[in-house]
Amino acid sequence: MENRISGSTRLLSLIGTPVDHSKSPIMYNYSFQKAGLDYAYLAFDIPVTKVADAINAIKTFNLRGSNVTMPCKSEVLKYMDDLSPAARMIGAVNTIINEDGKLTGHITDGLGFASNLRDSGVTVAGKKMTIIGAGGAATAIQVQSALDGAKEIAIFNIKDDFYQKAKQTVASIKQEVPNCIVQIYDLNDTEKLYAEIATSDILVNATLVGMHPYESKTPVKDATIFHKNLIVADVVYNPKKTKLMLDAEAAGCKTVGGLGMLLWQGAEAYKLFTGEDMPVEEVKELYFS
Ligand code: NAD
């Protein structure tokens, strides 16, 4: 690293809290070194109350850009000069690009989900999807899938505070992508859930269910309803294979785990920062296997 940093090296950052567990610094710095790009990436612990200061610092120090993680993804929105269509629809930003002081906010979570599926030979265009969840990850996937040409999206969530958010997502998709049929249902209506899964091409879990320490949980209790042609994707990456995925595999379904989404949303941000492709295969082997 000491041989790489010079007077012209441009900084990139991650802001949010906590950030000390993040794989982003090691993933990006490895890739910059490998590609001979004159950038360095550091994580900064920034609570919501410090977002304005962090945005000023991005401009003052002329950072190339920044990733944004929880809990700052919505707060940074009001400081952006421009937004990508997905960031505008979702109301959240995870990647900021700085062009001579003009800040554009993007969100790469949904792009990362789509690239991870594509990496497994699956595309969403023309497909019917059942997506369980209405939080940050779920909303990004729902909006991006609609923008990417999904034919139909059935959203299921428990009737908590996120249910209202899902209603907004449905309204936003209906307005911006009228060709996509989108509906929201109560996750506790299992009869409806199973009926929608039966006619879906892709099922996605984008909730906390199945995540450590609740590995024994799954949002789909009856594993007999999986049909062989169903692709089952989970955003949870700890454990790498959730109970939902194990049940689906036992029923003969192809499954896609959440770790790849994490990698690919970083690769999408890397492309925005540098204009180049991240060495995904190497990064995957070194840090994501
Ligand atoms: P969030 O807090 O924004 O949303 C939580 C979601 O889980 C909501 O839909 C909520 O209704 C649902 N939920 C919570 N408890 C539930 C229960 N008992 N039964 C059914 N639903 C329940 O969280 P998020 O940021 O969207 O994260 C969700 C999951 O996605 C986490 O496991 C997170 O690690 C993962 N994630 C993965 C990636 C990736 O790149 N793979 C990226 C972001 C998030």
TrEMBL record:
Protein name according to UniProt: Shikimate dehydrogenase (NADP(+))
Keyword tags: Amino-acid biosynthesis, Aromatic amino acid biosynthesis, NADP, Oxidoreductase
Family affiliation: Belongs to the shikimate dehydrogenase family.
Occurrences of domain SDH C-terminal (ranges): 258-285
Residues annotated as the enzyme's active site: 73 (proton acceptor)
Pathway field: Aromatic compound metabolism; 3,4-dihydroxybenzoate biosynthesis; 3-dehydroquinate from D-quinate (NAD(+) route); Metabolic intermediate biosynthesis; chorismate biosynthesis; chorismate from D-erythrose 4-phosphate and phosphoenolpyruvate: step 4/7
Chain positions recorded as NADP(+) binding sites: 133-137, 235, 258
SUPFAM superfamilies listed in its UniProt record: Aminoacid dehydrogenase-like, N-terminal domain, NAD(P)-binding Rossmann-fold domains
GO biological process: amino acid biosynthetic process; aromatic amino acid family biosynthetic process; chorismate biosynthetic process; shikimate metabolic process
Pfam family, one: SDH_C
Source organism (scientific name): Listeria seeligeri FSL N1-067
Task performed by this protein: Involved in the biosynthesis of the chorismate, which leads to the biosynthesis of aromatic amino acids. Catalyzes the reversible NADPH linked reduction of 3-dehydroshikimate (DHSA) to yield shikimate (SA).
Residue span, Shikimate dehydrogenase substrate binding N-terminal domain: 14-96
Reactions performed catalytically: shikimate + NADP(+) = 3-dehydroshikimate + NADPH + H(+); shikimate + NAD(+) = 3-dehydroshikimate + NADH + H(+); L-quinate + NAD(+) = 3-dehydroquinate + NADH + H(+)
Enzyme Commission code(s) on record: 1.1.1.25
Domain of life: Bacteria
NCBIfam families for this protein: aroE (TIGR00507), PRK12548.1 (NF009200)
